[in-house]
């Protein structure tokens, strides 16, 4: 198994499962976490490693270390030579995960994808039939689609994030610290903010479109994060995927451990007070783009770039919380007609949007 993003929550959970089940780790990659990567090297003895930050390369305790200067594609090619067809988990964060996804599929790796941006920005250019999703919602949909009738509608759920109960008028003054207090999941900072704005759910909608080829997709708020996905079938029947909120379940299925007990079953008595609520578009303004995004999925590249940049500004305390949705709509007004007909055009628009958001919001 190869793990890209080995120092993040998905990577750490994947390596925990590998440790418990005696799985071989052939290669590891992370952005800049030297201490974590060196610890993983000592434990798992990978053949190859990658650290994105060139200046940290000399600090890695391994004979074969790649970095940004060498290029992630060169690293993956070396991985292919060592471990052709291996399971590859792409848990990189952000747009930087797109090229590794493309290259992994090109080289014939068995791609388990936790990097949302690969599909949000570049789903048009990926062979989605060869991707195993690592996400509680998309794992739930995949799990329920085995040998089932024709789909009528896909439904995923959202917790509502940190500000579900906050007065809408008070959102402008919301602090970074408060936004990072997710009620149910322990995740990285970026995805936790995306949960508070519902942009994360917007991204999951377009991911489901690319993965399962259905445009009739909705999302509802389920505050306990116990129901992760539902499917309505053409015959009038419906089914739901229910489990404790634990990402180890989706990861285990993605790496071939789905036939054993991964987590404890949910006490079904906990479902007696479950409610599914429509998403309030006054509170979560960006989610109003859902139908437009499903009709024109290529704008995902624009939304993703604007969101990445403005969320970084919010985390850096340079813009306020409500600027996030405003920046997304602003970028779509500016670049919505840009033609995205190649991966090069996706990379170009990503750069243009980021520069625009920086200049407009973070002078």
UniProtKB/TrEMBL annotation:
<feature type="binding site">
    <location>
        <position position="201"/>
    </location>
    <ligand>
        <name>1-deoxy-D-xylulose 5-phosphate</name>
    </ligand>
</feature>
<comment type="pathway">
    <text>Isoprenoid biosynthesis; isopentenyl diphosphate biosynthesis via DXP pathway; isopentenyl diphosphate from 1-deoxy-D-xylulose 5-phosphate: step 1/6.</text>
</comment>
<feature type="binding site">
    <location>
        <position position="135"/>
    </location>
    <ligand>
        <name>Mn(2+)</name>
    </ligand>
</feature>
<dbReference type="InterPro" id="IPR013512">
    <property type="entry name" value="DXP_reductoisomerase_N"/>
</dbReference>
<dbReference type="Pfam" id="PF08436">
    <property type="entry name" value="DXP_redisom_C"/>
</dbReference>
<keyword id="KW-0479">Metal-binding</keyword>
<feature type="binding site">
    <location>
        <position position="159"/>
    </location>
    <ligand>
        <name>1-deoxy-D-xylulose 5-phosphate</name>
    </ligand>
</feature>
<feature type="binding site">
    <location>
        <position position="8"/>
    </location>
    <ligand>
        <name>NADPH</name>
    </ligand>
</feature>
<keyword id="KW-0414">Isoprene biosynthesis</keyword>
<feature type="domain" description="DXP reductoisomerase C-terminal">
    <location>
        <begin position="243"/>
        <end position="356"/>
    </location>
</feature>
<feature type="binding site">
    <location>
        <position position="116"/>
    </location>
    <ligand>
        <name>1-deoxy-D-xylulose 5-phosphate</name>
    </ligand>
</feature>
<keyword id="KW-0560">Oxidoreductase</keyword>
<comment type="similarity">
    <text>Belongs to the DXR family.</text>
</comment>
<feature type="binding site">
    <location>
        <position position="115"/>
    </location>
    <ligand>
        <name>NADPH</name>
    </ligand>
</feature>
<feature type="binding site">
    <location>
        <position position="137"/>
    </location>
    <ligand>
        <name>1-deoxy-D-xylulose 5-phosphate</name>
    </ligand>
</feature>
<feature type="binding site">
    <location>
        <position position="117"/>
    </location>
    <ligand>
        <name>NADPH</name>
    </ligand>
</feature>
<dbReference type="GO" id="GO:0030604">
    <property type="term" value="F:1-deoxy-D-xylulose-5-phosphate reductoisomerase activity"/>
</dbReference>
<feature type="binding site">
    <location>
        <position position="195"/>
    </location>
    <ligand>
        <name>1-deoxy-D-xylulose 5-phosphate</name>
    </ligand>
</feature>
<feature type="binding site">
    <location>
        <position position="204"/>
    </location>
    <ligand>
        <name>Mn(2+)</name>
    </ligand>
</feature>
<dbReference type="Pfam" id="PF13288">
    <property type="entry name" value="DXPR_C"/>
</dbReference>
<feature type="domain" description="1-deoxy-D-xylulose 5-phosphate reductoisomerase C-terminal">
    <location>
        <begin position="131"/>
        <end position="212"/>
    </location>
</feature>
<feature type="binding site">
    <location>
        <position position="200"/>
    </location>
    <ligand>
        <name>1-deoxy-D-xylulose 5-phosphate</name>
    </ligand>
</feature>
<dbReference type="InterPro" id="IPR036169">
    <property type="entry name" value="DXPR_C_sf"/>
</dbReference>
<feature type="binding site">
    <location>
        <position position="137"/>
    </location>
    <ligand>
        <name>Mn(2+)</name>
    </ligand>
</feature>
<keyword id="KW-0521">NADP</keyword>
<feature type="binding site">
    <location>
        <position position="10"/>
    </location>
    <ligand>
        <name>NADPH</name>
    </ligand>
</feature>
<dbReference type="InterPro" id="IPR003821">
    <property type="entry name" value="DXP_reductoisomerase"/>
</dbReference>
<feature type="binding site">
    <location>
        <position position="182"/>
    </location>
    <ligand>
        <name>1-deoxy-D-xylulose 5-phosphate</name>
    </ligand>
</feature>
<feature type="binding site">
    <location>
        <position position="136"/>
    </location>
    <ligand>
        <name>1-deoxy-D-xylulose 5-phosphate</name>
    </ligand>
</feature>
<dbReference type="InterPro" id="IPR026877">
    <property type="entry name" value="DXPR_C"/>
</dbReference>
<keyword id="KW-0460">Magnesium</keyword>
<protein>
    <recommendedName>
        <fullName>1-deoxy-D-xylulose 5-phosphate reductoisomerase</fullName>
        <ecNumber>1.1.1.267</ecNumber>
    </recommendedName>
</protein>
<feature type="binding site">
    <location>
        <position position="204"/>
    </location>
    <ligand>
        <name>1-deoxy-D-xylulose 5-phosphate</name>
    </ligand>
</feature>
<comment type="function">
    <text>Catalyzes the NADPH-dependent rearrangement and reduction of 1-deoxy-D-xylulose-5-phosphate (DXP) to 2-C-methyl-D-erythritol 4-phosphate (MEP).</text>
</comment>
<feature type="binding site">
    <location>
        <position position="188"/>
    </location>
    <ligand>
        <name>NADPH</name>
    </ligand>
</feature>
<dbReference type="InterPro" id="IPR013644">
    <property type="entry name" value="DXP_reductoisomerase_C"/>
</dbReference>
<feature type="domain" description="1-deoxy-D-xylulose 5-phosphate reductoisomerase N-terminal">
    <location>
        <begin position="1"/>
        <end position="123"/>
    </location>
</feature>
<dbReference type="Pfam" id="PF02670">
    <property type="entry name" value="DXP_reductoisom"/>
</dbReference>
<dbReference type="InterPro" id="IPR036291">
    <property type="entry name" value="NAD(P)-bd_dom_sf"/>
</dbReference>
<keyword id="KW-0464">Manganese</keyword>
<feature type="binding site">
    <location>
        <position position="9"/>
    </location>
    <ligand>
        <name>NADPH</name>
    </ligand>
</feature>
């Amino acid at each position: 198994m190869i793990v890209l993003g080995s120092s993040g929550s998905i990577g750490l959970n994947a390596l925990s499962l590998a440790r418990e089940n005696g799985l071989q780790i052939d290669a590891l990659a992370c952005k800049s976490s030297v201490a974590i990567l060196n610890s993983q090297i000592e434990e798992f003895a990978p053949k190859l490693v990658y650290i994105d930050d060139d200046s940290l390369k000399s600090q890695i305790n391994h004979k074969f270390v790649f970095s940004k200067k060498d290029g992630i594609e060169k690293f993956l090619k070396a991985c292919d030579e060592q471990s052709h067809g291996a399971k590859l988990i792409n848990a990189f964060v952000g747009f930087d995960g797109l090229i590794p996804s493309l290259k992994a599929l090109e080289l014939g790796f068995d791609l388990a994808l936790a990097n949302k941006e690969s599909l949000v920005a570049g789903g048009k250019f990926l062979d989605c039939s060869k991707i195993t999703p690592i996400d509680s919602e998309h794992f739930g949909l995949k799990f329920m689609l085995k040998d089932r009738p024709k789909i009528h509608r896909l439904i995923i759920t959202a917790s509502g994030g940190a500000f579900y109960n906050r007065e809408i008028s008070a959102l402008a003054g919301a602090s970074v610290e408060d936004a990072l207090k997710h009620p149910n999941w322990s995740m990285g900072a970026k995805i936790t903010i995306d949960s508070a704005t519902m942009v994360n759910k917007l991204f999951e909608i377009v991911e489901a479109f690319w993965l399962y080829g259905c445009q009739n997709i909705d999302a509802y708020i389920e505050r306990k994060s116990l129901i992760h996905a539902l499917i309505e079938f053409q015959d009038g029947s419906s089914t739901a995927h229910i489990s404790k909120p634990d990402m180890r379940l989706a990861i285990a299925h993605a790496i071939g451990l789905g036939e054993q007990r991964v987590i404890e079953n949910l006490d079904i008595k906990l479902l007696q007070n479950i409610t599914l609520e429509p998403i309030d578009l006054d509170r979560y303004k960006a989610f109003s783009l859902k139908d437009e995004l499903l009709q024109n999925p290529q704008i995902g590249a624009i939304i993703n770039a604007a969101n990445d940049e403005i969320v970084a500004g919010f985390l850096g305390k340079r813009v306020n919380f409500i600027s996030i949705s405003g920046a997304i709509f602003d970028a779509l007004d500016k670049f919505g007609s840009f033609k995205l007909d190649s991966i090069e055009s996706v990379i170009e628009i990503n750069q243009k949007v980021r520069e625009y958001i920086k200049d407009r919001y973070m002078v």
